[in-house]
Amino acid sequence: MKCSACASDFTDGVHCSSCGNDYDFACANLTEAGYRKLGADRRAVWKCPHKCRTSSPAPPPTKSVVTARTVASAGPVTLEAIMAKLTTMETKLTALPQIQTDLRDLKETCEFYGAKIEGLTNNMSMLETRLSNLEPMKEDLAATKDHLDREMTQARYNNLEIKGVPLTKSENLFEIVEKIENFVGYNFPRSHINYISRVPVHGSNEKNIIVSFVNRYVKEEFLATARAKKTILTTDLGYHGESKRVFLNDHLTPKLKMLLTKTKQLAKEKNYLHVWVKFSKIHIRKSDTSRAQVINSLNDLNKLT
Length: 305
What we know:
There is one protein chain. By secondary structure, the protein is α+β, with helices and mostly antiparallel strands. It has four domains: about 15-75, no CATH class; about 90-155; about 160-250, Alpha-Beta Plaits, CATH 3.30.70.1820; about 255-305, no CATH class. The chain is built from nine helices and ten strands. The strands form three sheets. The chain has a five-stranded antiparallel β-sheet. The protein has a three-stranded antiparallel β-sheet with strand order 8-9-10. It holds the Pfam family Baculo_FP_2nd. This is FP protein C-terminal domain-containing protein. InterPro entries: FP_C (IPR057251), Znf_RING/FYVE/PHD (IPR013083).
């Protein structure tokens, strides 16, 4: 059928219920989808916009039909115009190789950094796996360290540390201990001593005397008698020159020595009257009538009030 507006042939269009003419969708100012959505009732009463609607007639649709007259009205097409167009296109096309090169470089860069990122991700996964495997080892090391600390402490139960005795050539350590025995009033045979020697002090030129007893209770009684004496001076042991104090203490491990120092500091801050060591354990007491507490760790110090 032919369109009543433009005389073009068409196979599907719209029918005006007023004038009875047929139109293609373009001349009817409709799209095919829009026409289908009108429904059967509205399509049956549809009127064309050219003659039958009461509103002012719509301008005829503009068709994009290229005719010889249209081409002629645009002016003559010359060879020079075509060559100018081709030159412009050639100029634009010369940039294509560089664009292709840039795109290729960009692709290679992205692939390079993508591989780097993937490698870093794999390394992080490996590190996370190793760290997760280290956690049990960390716990085992902590348990081993605690066990060694207990072993070191037990190994020193029978030991006594004497500090402040001047170091002299050809000294006899057994005789020094006997002088201390005589001064404090507690004597025992040499057979009660397992070994005796001087050991260097960390960060000092001094060397303390370590006495290891065969019987721990002999050590404790000797130490308690010496502490009851309050003060022992080098001149009390027959040394000449400046008089300095001599100290007798349990032979503590470095860890317990540090804990004892912190305990004394805290006792001073919180007005605790007594801090002492017995059987290699640190004790603290607030007053003469209060209950003694054993300090085994820094956590115990944090609980003091």
